[in-house]
Amino acid sequence: MKKMRAARLVEPQKMVCEDANFYEPVKGQVVVKNHMAAICGSDLHQVFFTRRGPKDFPGLPGWPGHEGVGEVIESHDENVKVGERVLTIPGGGFQRGFADYQTLPSSWCLQLPDYDGPEEDLLMAQQFGTTIFALRRGNMDFIGKTVAILGQGSAGMFFAWLAKRFGAEKVIVSDLSLARLEQSASFGADISVLGDPDGKGIREAVLDSSSGRGADIVIEAVGRKETIKQAIDIAGYRSNVVFFGLPDTNRDIPFNYAQFFMKQIQMYGVVDAQGEEDLKSFYTALDWIARREIDVTKMVSHRLPLESIDQALVLAHERDEDALKVTLTF
């Protein structure tokens, strides 16, 4: 059986790069030789706040990587040709992108458009596509509204850009990283606030900017209990709250139900963008990047080889060295 290098979660908070068996494709699947993969905030939750028991270790080779670009080297689908360069957006059961090769259904491979910039830019379309999907699901009116976004990882920055594109009057963002906040303005943020455990800073900024009304739309892009509670706290009357951040726990998270009820908040969670029937959100993301409607050239701050997977994850998690988006090369 063929071998490949792959990252594996061998214990909570620890991944290593080792030789692993190659996943043999079946009908309808393709094999992609990875050129590059990106670390997502949800990967960090899976690794550092894992809900796995002892019997679940080690994890599957390549898991939980799901943001990648590469070249098709074997195809069992007549509609996908060997040699095509693709963005890989694998869903459940196939999120194994932290490896030399991915074997996945062809439907989760999107051919890259013509683009004279680096392939790394197009890699950003995976995360970008999930944020487009999240807002399409809500069908919200952004025109003239005050929008608050908790978290300024790549997803939070994409939400800021989308809010402005869709007509928001004021976009207020918060994060614990000064480096990320410094980037936020280039993605549309009008006000950037350094986060705090009680959410005092973001609350004051939202109330000051909305004449005390609160935010019309709140997007939680962290997944921590603190920011989940803050999202409801800063939301205004008859507002909308979007929960995008992958929860870091399976336990109940208490929140002020009376506050939610009296404000008449509408809220929803978003996951599984790869289940979108036509994958239009991801195609739109690729198109906007390729046509340079959005500038993603400064989003990636660190590039490490696959062998340094553990270092790369710690870097992204701890935000050391002013880390923004961290990618892996093969």
UniProtKB/TrEMBL annotation:
Key words of the record: Oxidoreductase
GO molecular function, one term: oxidoreductase activity
Keyword NADP in annotation: no
InterPro entries reported in the protein's UniProt record: ADH-like_C, ADH-like_N, GroES-like_sf, NAD(P)-bd_dom_sf, Zn_alcohol_dh
Residue ranges annotated for the Alcohol dehydrogenase-like C-terminal domain, each copy included: 156-290
Domain Alcohol dehydrogenase-like N-terminal: 27-114
Pfam families documented for this protein: ADH_N (PF08240), ADH_zinc_N (PF00107)
Gene3D superfamilies listed in its UniProt record: Medium-chain alcohol dehydrogenases, catalytic domain, NAD(P)-binding Rossmann-like Domain
Protein's name according to its UniProt entry: Enoyl reductase (ER) domain-containing protein
Gene source species: OM182 bacterium
